[in-house]
Amino acid sequence: MAAAAAVNGVKLGTTSQAYLESKAVNDTRALLSDLCRHFYTLGWVSGTGGSITIKVHDDSIPKPQQLVVMSPSGVQKERMVPEDMYILSPNGSVLSAPSPKPYPHKPPKCSDCGPLFMKKAKRRLISWEKRSRNLKYEAYEMRDAGAVIHSHGIESCLVTMINPLAKEFRISHMEMIKGIKGHGYYDELVVPIIENTAYEYELTESLAKAIEAYPKTTAVLVRNHGIYIWGDSWINAKTQAECYHYLFDAAIKLHQLGLDWSTPNHGPIQNVKGVLGSGGNRNISVKAGTAGSNNEFEPSWRCIVLDIEGTTTPISFVTDVLFPYARDNVARHLSATYDTAETKDDIELLRSQVQDDLEKGVSGAVPIPSYDAGKEKVIAALVANVEAMIKADRKITALKQLQGHIWRTGYENNELEGVVFEDVPEALARWHGSGIKIYIYSSGSRLAQKLIFGNTNHGDLRNFLSGFFDTTVGNKRETRSYVEITEYLGVDKPSEILFVTDVFQEAVAAKAAGLEVIISVRPGNGPLPENHGFKTVNSFLEI
User: Fold this and answer.
1) CATH no. for residue 344?
2) Residue 143 class from Cβ within 10 Å (0-12 exposed, 13-18 middle, 19+ buried)?
3) Secondary structure of the chain: what % helix, strand, coil (to 5)?
4) Where does a domain end: 348, 378, 413?
5) Does 175 qualify as catalytic in the annotation?
6) Are 424 and 406 in the same domain?
7) What are 242-289's pLDDT values in tens digits?
């Protein structure tokens, strides 16, 4: 049944001619023609290549039922006008097609065979246009996108050619990473690369697999071809497209200078096969070794993943400083930030957790009243629950997210300073200088991790770190969590990752996933089982 939209106060089906000629549709047509001309000047849609699709934003229609405006293929993008655009239904059928123009213009390409748009393309002679749209609709179907941009920008093509074996593009510590949804300056951006084919419809399956395998990505690179980028709106998709192209261009130029764009300090290239950003197509070996007479170090691992509490940082700092600070400042923080979107999100996450705790009979859980009960009563209930969660040392996202926001205020006000063991900075610098990528995996939120390492008693250590993992990847005592990390890091085999922790159960889970494991023995750590079977170190300098 077609969705109904209000035009001049009258409800109309979205497939009606009146709605197809409505202001919402016409505005989207005009916007698309403007973007085509702009993208042409950027080199993204030259030679009639590339395309853009945008959903017709209409508050009266649910997003999945909104119409899609699409630029035609094989025509001069810089000369397009609003009337040149196709209007497609939510399932991809053509509702309105442009009229052909006289010679020498080519006729616009867009199939009227709608049912195939939302299906996987089949290996037979379907028109190219149908196959192309399958790719766009993967993003609409799988990611609830509001717009999809397909660029043939030279940067997106060349960056996939530097290392023909690479399955991913990775880059870290670049300001423009902040323009990619879900990423900050200190995060590692990972973009999957799929292989090009002679016919674009043949990309449909590999594109869908890439989108599924990389749930955080908002883009997929196609080797020797270009890139597909999506966002929840045309502004978001355009912004991200600009940032992606900037980062690709920066990576290419860094590579030309012999610098590795994927490492935090963008130092000299040291090759790791299969990951774009670790040395291109050179074939320098990365193998087990030790420090030689010239003080060079050949790493045994491509990545080192570190726990925090009891590994990089004394347990006492967490239990005697961070936890009490969060507990003592919950009420002040919630009261000061109660009406902000961030705190509203924290409250809803806690509300959901507490409801689950109440159903399971978890000790210390008390009901959180609705907002109608008033700010004071809501905060009082939140404080009671948070105090109980901290006392029980619960490793749950709802608590860790709020704690991170409270600690951020503490660091900003110089009321907190992160603490790491004396050997940590030197070891991080040595590993980093050897080309090893270093990551943090802690039950604390990613924000909390960045705050500790950005404000330590030895200064800001984040430049040595390539990324952060928290409990959103999984419980630290579950093997699946380490499988997820292995897949994210893109190594050829799990044993190329070293995990260092002070917790025996975490060591067992990581080993079961195939990672190399070392247990950190630090002052204040709990006892280990006899005959536990793991190598131990008292200092990172022993690794």
Assistant:
1) 1.10.720.60
2) middle
3) 45, 15, 40
4) 413
5) yes
6) no
7) 999 999 999 999 999 999 888 888 888 765 444 555 544 333 223 333
What amino acid occupies position 486? T
Check the annotation: does 307 bind a ligand.
Answer: yes
Q: Is 466 annotated as a binding residue?
A: no
331 in Cβ contact with 379 (< 8 Å):
yes
pLDDT tens digits along 94-130: 888 888 877 887 767 663 323 223 332 233 233 334 4
Task: Say yes or no: 398 and 467 in one domain.
Answer: no
Distance between CA atoms of residues 229 and 232, nearest Å: 11
Whole-angstrom distance, CA of residue 218 vs CA of residue 339: 30
Domain range for 486: 303-310+419-542
- Hey, is 85 helix, strand or coil? coil
DSSP state of 359: H
Q: What is the rounded CA–CA span in Å between residue 63 and residue 124?
A: 32
Query: 10 Å Cβ neighbour count for 538?
Result: 12
The pTM of the full predicted model, rounded to 2 decimals, is: 0.62
Written as one string, the DSSP assignment of 300-331 is S-SEEEE--BTTTB-HHHIIIIIHHHHHHHHH
- What pLDDT does residue 140 have? 65
Same structural domain for residues 59 and 197? yes
Q: Is 432 annotated as a binding residue?
A: no
* 113 known ligand binder: yes
Report which of 458, 465, 400, 456 is spatially closest to residue 432, judged by C-alpha positions. 465
Phi-psi region of 394 (alpha: psi -120 to 50; beta: other; left: phi over 0): beta
Chain centroid to CA 224: how far? Answer: 23
Q: What is the pLDDT of residues 435-488, one digit of tens each?
A: 899 999 998 889 999 999 999 999 999 999 999 999 889 999 999 999 999 998
Which one from 175, 342, 415, 542 is the annotated catalytic residue? 175
What's the pLDDT tens digit per position in 301-316? 899 999 999 999 999 9
Residue tagged 């509300």 (tokens)? 351
Quote the CA–CA distance of 491 and 194 in Å, as a whole number: 17
Distance separating alpha carbons of residues 30 and 21, to the nearest angstrom: 12
How far apart are alpha carbons 474 and 442 in whole angstroms? 10
